[in-house]
Design goal:
The protein is mainly α and 184 residues long. The chain has 8 helices and 5 strands, in the order H-H-E-E-E-H-H-H-E-H-H-E-H.
Length: 184
């Protein structure tokens, strides 16, 4: 959702410091995540457009704006009102859903995250330098961890999973293990 808002800010040429324009834009923005995990922005599938180096560089700046966070947290809470929701984000377990039934904090070493992002972009035909990717990820971690409003924190009651050496299938299995523990 934050990436979609960032894309719209870029497309509309909105100055993030212009609270009035940003507020109007947020009120008229429709973001939908469908069952296939595609992201729709105002009726357009932007799943791939929100995962570009430009959006990577800007998403933490835009997501640090209190007005943006307040609006999206409200939408996220509405989506999860009836439970049964699986979602991810840097403040999901601490701010958005602090009473979630199961919180999992997944992380990987910066070197592994760099490799994964470079590979993901490469599959989409975007050639990037690994050092640039590492710098963007590191910068985003710093901005998100130190922002005043809804900073990235590990929830005290979260299960921490280091995914550095896990395949996607291995990650899914670890999460399912935790879900099964909850059900038993």
């Amino acid at each position: 959702m934050y990436r979609a808002v960032t894309l719209k800010v870029v497309r509309d040429g909105i100055d993030p410091d212009n609270v009035e324009k940003l507020s109007r834009m947020l009120k008229s923005t429709d973001i939908v995540i469908d069952r296939e995990n595609r992201i729709w922005l105002d009726g357009e599938d932007v799943t791939f457009q929100i995962r570009t180096p430009e959006i990577d560089r800007l998403v933490s700046v835009i997501s640090a704006i209190p007005l943006v966070r307040e609006r999206l947290v409200m939408i996220q809470r509405e989506l999860g009102r009836d439970g049964g929701l699986v979602c991810e984000g840097r403040d999901i377990g601490t701010v958005v859903f602090p009473k979630a039934e199961l919180k999992i904090y997944m992380d990987a070493k910066l070197s592994e995250r760099t490799k994964r992002r470079k590979k993901e972009l490469g599959h989409r035909g975007i050639d990037v330098n690994a050092d640039d990717v590492r710098q963007v990820l590191s910068s985003r971690d710093e901005i998100d961890s130190t922002r005043t409003h809804s900073p990235l924190r590990i929830p005290g009651d979260a299960v921490i999973i280091d995914t550095s050496r896990l395949t996607i299938e291995g990650q899914v299995e670890r999460v399912l293990e935790e879900m099964r523990k909850l059900k038993s």
